Amino acid sequence: MSTRLSRSAQHEWVVDRYEAFPFRGPSGNPAIADLAIVTRDGAVPVVVATERGDNPGISVTNGAEQLAAQVLIRIFPERIGQGQPFRLVEHYRGGSEIYFDGVRWTDKSSMQEVQFKDFRLRGETVPRIGEASEWLNLDERIAKVIAEQVVQRADARAATLDRKSTVSRAEVGLSR
Fold it and tell me: What residue numbers bound the domain in which 24 lies?
């Protein structure tokens, strides 16, 4: 289910979209992450991939190249071939305290931006983009939006999932 949120002031980062996002890992096995699309007019969009407790497949870290390629193809097809079509941030709930540009966030989750060598699409069976090369801290403005909006949604989703024991292939949105 996708949620479209209203845009506030044009200069602020806002969460425009939040949804469960099924994807395939390098071996083709199904996985799922929660995605938030964070935007600001004139800026490269930020995609926050939250690791789900009910993910049946590869983690957002180990499947970063495949996840990014599938985001590019399915959400930003008009940006294929552009230098940096979006920024990818991985988010894990319940990690250690995090610091962004000297600011301490108390949601105790882990968030880092994944840097890729390039965004050229590769792969035939399961698409991927260039190799993930670095994981970096976020700038304070984006980190604040994520901490205030995305983490809250991820926590709400996790509370709902805690009531479920497993996720089915249909819920992941993938069939064999």
Answer: 3-163
